[in-house]
């Protein structure tokens, strides 16, 4: 209910966009645009400010189009191979008269009085004359003045995007300088007390200004000229000064607020003092707090602080107006249809945008929603597409087939979807794959081992990384695969033995040496969720050591990832937890090895797909083994070995 | 037969491309590429030289994701709206203990010992404490360290094209500088005695260097860094010096030969002295003389001199290798299917490339071949697509449906095809159309009035400009339209009264005052072809003046365009000819008005096509009338008037 209320006073996206266009049109944003004169040679990609007409004809003279002799065409009529006709050869200085000719090379000016060229292959030079064995029509083999472009003819229309061939045409037509539309100048102002400009200034509680770089690059991508300003502190006067100054020398101003609640109020207050706030809040998610204003006749946009929200609202409210102002063709994303691999919950009355991975699994195009936090930059880089969940939906069921807008020329046909237990070494597999097949992209989604098995069952993934221990047998993976994935063509291939261990603060202040220490009353443990491979391993090892879970303080506190365990230790919320070495390493924690576990890959490829063989080949290669083992905590001696092959009945 | 022989020793295009790739691969053109370190903020569109891993986790600390109070999650269990739980508020300096909490804002570091945030909406502050009305799970409303990106995790793979969101991810992951592939440096060397660098140096017999600008822009378009060199004269030593010098500092060298026959031999000779010539001549048209060589381990390409040939061979032999070297996705043109509007003759054994206009006429996608001269720059700018006529074809019949590669994001759906008698004022109509509909493009093909009528009959054009006089009645256009285009939904709309007259040399040296002077024995006339509107007008006017064609010297000499008439006069091949004022004006000839003719438009649009009404509206507008009449020789007082409407039975 909270969420619904929050959107009550918001405009709908279409209303906001329409109002925005209308007001920008009214204030002249799309008209009487500034222009500049540039050299034609520098004009690639620029847009003509007005129609451009030829200053000279092309060709600018009547020229021979062949090597041969220039003649008066009717003098040649009747000439044939067996009945040659003889013409008198003249020198350049001699005036033309009937039955005469001149020697010409391709490109030479046609001598006065001639109107055709007999090509050299049809001419026999005899003393003082030329015998020709073929007749020519008037103007045959002659490039007539203006036959390509006539002086005063239109060469390029107004608002045309100049390509390399246009440059050739302009120059040929005698146009060496042209007027083009100036690129719109867009100021990008990062604001916020908690924002710093460089990594050096980073400490807990402050965050790096990445948005101003991202938004400036986006402005450039959309044809504008970004002007990235210094960070402005959260202070009404400072923000007002910065916006006012930017308005004087730019065509548009973007203010990027901090992420704190209520922070955008500064921007809103300042903008209503400087001009008119048209929109404050749009019923979209993420991106609700966007502000659209017109100040001093220019657009000013307040974008939310979270990167995903900032990018989405920039795409919705900046991209198209920037492109339209430049008279560039409207931005169009490629669209495909794909089936959702898991359900998406959504809020009624709010239009939601969800980034997805897209791939073709066993002939079916599938879209896997990425984590939806507005602050998750990784969802921006991992996304290959974006789907829109309409206002009228409470969500979309798994399996729903819906349109996906593809991002940055994504090629779903070349995407390999890896879904399951996440592992840094799996990403290295992606790197090696690309070295073999330049356009292949491995997309990794972290949903745990059982999630991976389910994805394979539904043909929603090519690869599932799993580490599932069978407590009965102490065996890994094969039993679960047989149980949950019967009747499918699948390969189970060994990937690595992976070290699991206890993560502790640097220098191990509580002197934890192994699982036995977990029973010490002063030690607090942080656990992984039921069903995770790591939890299964813990339970198995505790059983072997005859430790009962009730002896461990914190056993019942569960978190969902290796990193959450590590984070708990760093935060002092727990003294230790079980996880992979890489997580400990990433956060600078110490690591006490407990047990090796077996991490394998289920491969789900069509028989005609070459990628499976490449993957197995990579797993078995010494280079791959070397690189993965260098990460620490991995043993790849049997990588690539086929453990199990299941067949469709 | 000549043509066939010329291609006998040529490689086929696919063979040449394959050999070229293979040799470039062997000489390492695609490997161990030069790289450079740049700031991440400047990296948009660049390509990563190697995989990039996170230097820090994102977030880099456990931070509050909401404004509220930081708590130990299990202390909140059981709290409800009607059963609030009370916690003690601590200040920053106080150490955490059970049932305590701290006030936090979004983004604040989580105090040591806390692992969740209760959002402010669920908190009632009472003196010294906080009453909470909702429980939270561990790490709820907390951004856990590394939940977005984990230190050491892959951020971008090797050979990835960097987008704005990638810039955000890199910076957030602590990566402020990266190694990217250097852009390949490509020298472009124009050669030829007849080539000049500027319009000022232009005179008959020399031509402007437009290719080096076009090719440099193309190199830039394909991601390379062009280095345009000065023009080199046709001199073996000079050319060799220029190529040798360019090889030292560039990754690729393009030599653009002059257009004269045999000129490319210089390049070929030099290249075989400097390295190995792999290919000299490919069985394609245009573009046959292309030379592919490897000198000092680097590719050197000799491109033919005609602009259309140069561009085509650059697209075939430079674009893809440049793109592949940069690890950019292979260049792909959009393809559509369209029906040829007229037949294309072709040479057996030669692969021909023909540029076309493309448009949707009455629901049928049609492709209209443009003039095919290799020297016709205008065919490059007017083309919206390119079709390939295979080696096995002697040509393609009109109506053949075949694939068309679309050029520069052409949008056939927005193209209006005007086919018929050409007129400068028609191009102005295109300019005005664009002002009303930004993405509409008017493509004009000059095939004469009867050609236009035939194109309309076959639904191959939207507009036909015609000026056809009925000798019986002295009436224009309507009779012909009724005769040749029965049973079709068409509008005949008046465009302009157009002045036809006699073109003569400046200052009219032979003192020609009108048609009566054509009978003077010392006057030579140049005629237009039978069936052209201008020829019909002449014959009609001669009849009125009771002049017989036999009285006119040159009456039987025909050329095909207004410009060819003007060119004949300039060249001294004739003293005068009938044509429109604009042609005379373009070439600086004097003009003696003879008669006004009626130029009308047949409009062939689907009923749901809005363009017809826009066109009529433009024709009737005072702005359009003003601009067209300013061209001279036009009267638009009745423009836009509906003359005739024919209906399908």
Which structural class best describes the helix and strand composition of chain A? alpha+beta
- Oligomerization state: homodimer
Helix content of chain A: 25-40%
Specify the number of helices of chain A. 16
Spatial order of the strands forming the largest sheet of chain A: 7-4-6-5-9-8
Largest interface: A-B, 131 and 131 residues
**CA distance, first residue to last residue of chain A:** 49 Å
Instruction: Write down how many β-strands of chain A occur, each being a DSSP E stretch of 2 or more residues.
Output: 40
Determine the strand fraction of chain A and express it as a percent band.
Answer: 25-35%
Q: Which overall shape of chain A is indicated by the principal axes computed on the Cα atoms?
A: extended
State mean pLDDT of chain A (0 to 100 scale).
91
| Sheet with most strands of chain A | 6 strands, mixed
Catalogue the unreliable spans of chain A. Answer: none
Rg over alpha carbons of chain A:
36 Å
Can you characterise this structure?
- 2 copies of one chain form a homodimer.
- The first copy, chain A, has a 6-stranded mixed sheet, with no helix packed on it.
- Chain A has 16 helices and 40 strands.
- In chain A, strand 24 (351-361) and strand 25 (364-369) form a beta hairpin.
- The model of chain A has no long low-confidence stretch (mean pLDDT 91).
- In chain A, helix 4 (211-221) runs parallel beside helix 7.
């Amino acid at each position: 209910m909270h969420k619904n209320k929050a959107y009550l006073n918001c405009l709908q996206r279409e209303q906001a966009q329409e109002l925005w266009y209308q007001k920008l049109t009214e204030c002249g944003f799309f008209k009487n645009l500034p222009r500049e004169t540039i050299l034609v040679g520098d004009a690639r990609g620029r847009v003509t400010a007005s129609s451009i007409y030829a200053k000279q004809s092309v060709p600018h003279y009547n020229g021979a189009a062949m090597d041969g002799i220039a003649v008066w065409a009717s003098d040649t009529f009747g000439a044939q191979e067996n009945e040659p006709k003889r013409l008198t050869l003249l020198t350049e200085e001699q005036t033309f008269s009937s039955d005469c000719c001149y020697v010409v090379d391709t490109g030479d000016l046609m001598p006065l009085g001639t109107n055709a060229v007999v090509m050299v292959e049809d001419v026999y030079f005899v003393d003082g004359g030329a015998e020709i064995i073929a007749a020519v029509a008037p103007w045959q083999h002659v490039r007539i003045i203006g036959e390509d472009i006539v002086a005063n003819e239109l060469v390029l229309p107004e608002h045309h995007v100049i390509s390399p061939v246009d440059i050739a045409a302009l120059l040929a037509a005698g146009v060496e300088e042209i007027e083009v539309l100036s690129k719109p100048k867009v100021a990008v102002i990062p604001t916020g007390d908690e924002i710093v400009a460089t990594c050096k200034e980073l400490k807990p509680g402050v965050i790096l200004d990445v948005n101003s770089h991202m938004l400036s690059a986006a402005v450039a991508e959309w044809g504008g000229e970004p002007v990235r300003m210094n960070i402005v502190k959260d202070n009404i006067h400072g923000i007002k000064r910065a916006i006012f100054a930017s308005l004087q020398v730019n065509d548009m101003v973007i203010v990027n607020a901090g992420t704190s609640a209520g922070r955008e109020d500064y921007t809103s207050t300042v903008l209503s003092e400087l001009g008119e706030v048209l929109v404050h809040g749009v019923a979209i998610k993420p991106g609700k707090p966007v502000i659209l204003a017109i100040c001093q006749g220019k657009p000013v946009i307040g974008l939310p602080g979270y990167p995903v929200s900032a990018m989405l609202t920039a795409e919705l409210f900046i991209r198209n107006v920037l492109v339209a102002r430049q008279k560039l063709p409207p931005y169009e994303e490629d669209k495909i249809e794909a089936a959702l691999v898991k359900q998406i919950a959504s809020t009624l009355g709010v239009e939601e945008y969800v980034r997805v991975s897209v791939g073709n699994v066993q002939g079916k195009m599938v879209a896997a929603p990425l984590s939806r936090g507005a602050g998750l930059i990784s969802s921006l880089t991992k996304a290959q597409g974006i789907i829109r969940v309409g206002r009228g939906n409470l969500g979309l069921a798994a399996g729903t087939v819906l349109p996906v807008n593809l991002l940055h020329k994504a090629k779903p046909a070349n995407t390999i979807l890896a879904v399951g237990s996440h592992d840094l070494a799996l990403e290295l597999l992606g790197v090696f794959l690309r070295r073999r097949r330049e356009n292949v992209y491995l997309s990794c989604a972290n949903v745990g081992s059982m999630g991976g098995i389910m994805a394979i069952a539904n043909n929603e993934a090519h690869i599932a990384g799993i580490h599932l221990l069978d407590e009965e047998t102490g065996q890994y993976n094969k039993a679960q695969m047989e149980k949950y994935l019967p009747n499918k063509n699948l390969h189970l291939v060994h990937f690595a033995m992976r070290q699991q261990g206890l993560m502790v603060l640097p220098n191990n202040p509580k002197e934890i040496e192994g699982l036995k220490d977990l029973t010490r009353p002063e030690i607090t443990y942080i656990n992984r969720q039921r069903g995770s491979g790591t939890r299964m391993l813990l339970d198995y090892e505790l059983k072997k050591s005859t430790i009962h879970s009730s002896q461990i303080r914190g056993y019942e506190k569960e978190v969902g990832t290796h990193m959450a365990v590590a984070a708990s230790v760093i935060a002092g919320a727990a003294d230790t937890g079980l996880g992979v070495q890489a997580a400990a390493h990433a956060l600078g924690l110490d690591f006490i090895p407990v047990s090796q576990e077996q991490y394998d890959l289920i491969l789900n490829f069509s028989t005609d797909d070459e990628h499976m063989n490449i993957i197995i080949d990579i797993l078995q290669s010494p280079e791959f083994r070397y690189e993965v083992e260098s990460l620490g905590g991995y043993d790849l001696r049997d990588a690539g070995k086929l453990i199990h092959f299941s067949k469709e009945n």
